[in-house]
Amino acid sequence: MGILVALLVVWAVLVVLGIVVKGLFWLIIVGAVLFVATGVIGFVKREALGRRH
């Protein structure tokens, strides 16, 4: 779970950096996509683990 939170923080930082530096618009897109993908994967894995117990 710690790795998931760390990745979410990294992706959020990339999005903010992309917003601050105007020439890095692509960083906003990449960071947002990775943030959402990490969140979805974490949610799915948490749900799958919760059903086993």
Descriptive overview:
- This protein is mostly helical.
- Helix content is 89%, strand content 0%.
- It is built from 2 helices and no strands.
- It has helices at 2-20, 25-52.
- Helix 1 packs antiparallel against helix 2.
- The protein is elongated, with a radius of gyration of 14 Å.
- Keywords: Membrane, Transmembrane, Transmembrane helix.
- The chain crosses the membrane at residues 28-44.
Gist?
With 53 residues, the protein is mainly α.
Mean pLDDT across all residues, rounded? 83
Count of DSSP strands = 0
Q: How many discrete structural domains? A: 1
Helix content: over 70%
Major beta sheet summary: none
Radius of gyration: 14 Å
Give the SSE string.
HH
End-to-end span in angstroms? Answer: 17 Å
Percentage beta strand: under 5%
Label the overall shape.
Answer: elongated
Query: Would you tell me the structural class of the helices and strands?
Result: mainly alpha
Low-pLDDT runs of 5+ residues are none
**Helix count, per DSSP?**
2
Keywords: Membrane, Transmembrane, Transmembrane helix
Transmembrane segments: 28-44
Layout: helices, strands, pairs:
Blueprint (H helix, E strand, L loop, with lengths): L1 H19 L4 H28 L1
Keywords: Membrane, Transmembrane, Transmembrane helix
Key attributes of the depicted protein:
single chain; 53 residues; mainly alpha; 2 helices; 89% helix; elongated
